[in-house]
Amino acid sequence: MISVDTWAEIRRLHRSEKVPIKQIARDLGIGWNTVRRALRGEDPPDRSRGPRGSKIDAFVPQIRALLAEYPKMPATVIAERVGWTFSPSLFRERVSELRPEYQGIDPADRLSYQAGERIQCDLWFPETRVPVGDGQDRVLPVLVMVSGFSRRIEAVMLPSRQGGDLTAGMWSLLQRFGGIPRSLLWDREAAIGGLGKPTILAASFAGTLATRLRLAPPRDPETKGIVERANRFLETSFPPGRIFQGRDDFNAQLTDWLETRANQRQVRAIAARPVELAAIDRAGLLPLPAKPPATGLTHRIRLARDYYVRLDGNDYSVDPRFIGRFVDVHASLDEVVISCAGQPAGQHPRSLRTGQTIPDPEHVATAAKLRAHYQRPKPSGVREHPDGHRVQIRALSDYDALFGVDFTTTTEYEKDAQ
Q1: 6: left (phi over 0), alpha (psi -120 to 50) or beta
Q2: Residue in 206, 164, 210, 165 with CA at minimum distance from that of residue 185
Q3: What distance in Å separates the CA atoms of residue 375 and residue 367, rounded to the nearest whole number?
Q4: pLDDT tens, 79-129?
Q5: pTM over 0.85
Q6: 100 — phi, psi (to 5°)?
Q7: Short-list 220, 187, 271, CA closest to 109
């Protein structure tokens, strides 16, 4: 078979230079029939080789049998099972060719949304550790929410990934968006829908906002690919080169960066900038409810003698005058508020450290006064009320005389007993 260069030269000489076939054969040193075939065909000669045999061909039936039963079995394990001892790269290449026949194909569609239709939610854990006080630092979760229509990104760093903090973060970011979407899309985050359906807390939050909480199907990350790409964009573009003094400083820098950089960028998928579509997106959102939804960490506990309550790994002091009574503890993203039957019983900034004791000097002073009052010696026959006034203690005989009871007379029963 002649080369492509020779084929091209034959055609040029015969068609352009009008050289006879015999002379072309003589000049190029090839046969007449070869020249005729080159002039007869319009396509260049195919120099590719046909399939050649390989040592791995004998193992293909065993490979197919294993893939039919275990489509995700690694190539190294398959090689061990079938007894392959030759080139690992050759074996991996053949397995990768055969695997799609048994594993199936899962195409990912490109999704488009209407204004106000959906906001995708996810947690991003930045590699940068944030100072939380006393020389400690932590990796704190960042709640990221992205509009499916305008691709607008809003995010806030949270104290934890507990359900109460997640709902508080969502409410804070929805206020930035200026409304409520028709649906909120989450993956199966434990506090949102770890068991495949929304938790009571998440369903209550969605119901208050009159929206729908959707959970992404298992093994289908493309469902919320918009927020996943936003997470990668945040990781590579926001923290590098920055120094953070704490969570508040992180959120302040993040909010400014989102407004001036992230939401000003050109998004290829929508051929626009998020800020250019923000007004249209906001018009499609449902209005914010008049009554805010219940968010944050809450619980009720009977206050013990040590007048401290534990929340998120820290102990916060409570007014000791409420010892023995039930107190309600509520933690927002920034502070801890304690009340008893509607009365204020304590308020503290929320600590991001763990294992800390956070006292209020007024609570400590009140406890000292109550303790000193309790331990003060009492005069005989006089009892002092906690509010300070004294109460006279009467003898039991006074009550007998008051009710006309005379125990000096011996009854018939007592005579028999004697």
Answers
A1: alpha
A2: 206
A3: 12
A4: 999 999 999 999 999 999 999 888 877 666 667 789 999 999 999 999 989
A5: no
A6: -55, -25
A7: 220
